[in-house]
Write a structure and sequence with these properties.
The chain is mainly β. It has a domain of about 150 residues: L,D-transpeptidase catalytic domain-like (Beta Barrel). Helices cover about 5% and strands about 25% of the residues. It is built from one helix and 18 strands. The strands form six sheets. Strands 3, 9, 12, 15 and 17 form a five-stranded mixed sheet that branches. It has a five-stranded mixed sheet with strand order 6-5-4-18-8, with no helix packed on it. It is globular and about 45 Å long.
Length: about 270
């Protein structure tokens, strides 16, 4: 490109290719108009595996999502009228969020922002008193919440000792251990809307359940769960599990974490 002579006859070199000449009343724009930014893919959420296993590793959104796992079959004792089975949570990952179009401004969210999940204190533990049929949530030895519960009947007593929370399941599936008939989540599900397992016994159980001789093969577990039989709360009527009002087990579910200590008193 030839040089343009300036005042006084001294040649002025031309600007380098791609640069803008900033002299004059209207400066030139450097480069093309700015494009909309593309957000990074949202990583899939971690899902705790069933039966107290470690959390499943997260996978990048760019990779194919893992197939949903089949429900884990365990037999919780204490579900009316007989023992049952809890399903494991699905391992499918949510789809990544789509990027906004170039130049578009994201719309403001309607309604109040969702509340952040409450942090669970490190010193929290559970204490179950079978005789009083009462469950306490304690933070560093101070009781912060009490719940009325139903415990195991004679011959199917809730196990006594020290335990830890092994699993948490939303909307569990109940399966009859002998007939294999499943009850999906809903108002008729004997486990209610939440399951919190804390004890597993793979020696099997056999005994009179008040109506017939019950013979359970394989592993069974005990845990906290809701119940559609509200009148049973406060009594010793289960097969070893701990029943709560469904609204109470929902609250308890948010107050506990995997590995939390539990002491069951006689």
């Amino acid at each position: 490109m030839p040089s343009k002579p300036a005042a006084g006859g001294v040649p002025r070199p031309a600007p380098p290719s791609g640069a803008a000449l900033l002299s004059g009343d209207q400066p030139l724009v450097i480069g093309a108009p700015a494009q909309g930014l593309q957000p990074s893919p949202v990583p899939p959420a971690l899902t705790p595996a069933a039966l107290g296993a470690a959390d499943a590793p997260a996978s990048r959104a760019a990779l194919p999502s893992a197939p949903a796992a089949s429900p884990a079959v365990v037999s919780p004792i204490g579900t009316p009228p007989q023992s049952g089975i809890v399903s494991a949570p699905s391992l499918s990952a949510p789809a990544p969020a789509s990027a906004p179009a170039s130049g578009d401004r994201p719309a403001a969210a309607s309604g109040p922002a969702p509340a952040a999940p409450a942090l669970i204190p490190a010193g929290r533990e559970l204490v179950l008193d079978r005789r009083r049929r009462r469950l306490e949530v304690r933070d560093n030895g101070i009781t912060v919440r009490r719940f009325a519960v139903a415990v195991g009947m004679p011959g199917w007593e809730t196990p006594v000792g020290r335990f830890a929370v092994l699993e948490k399941t939303l909307n569990p599936i109940w399966e009859h251990p002998q007939s294999g008939v499943q009850t999906p989540p809903g108002a008729a599900n004997p486990l209610g809307s939440r399951w919190i397992g804390f004890h597993r016994d793979c020696s099997g159980r056999r005994g009179w359940d008040g109506e017939s001789m019950l013979d359970v093969k394989g592993c069974v577990v005990a845990g906290f769960h809701g119940t559609p039989h509200r009148w049973t709360v406060g009594q010793a009527v289960s097969h070893g599990c701990v029943r709560l009002y469904d609204e109470d087990v929902r609250t308890l579910y948010e107050m506990v974490s995997l590995g939390m200590r539990l002491t069951v008193l006689p």
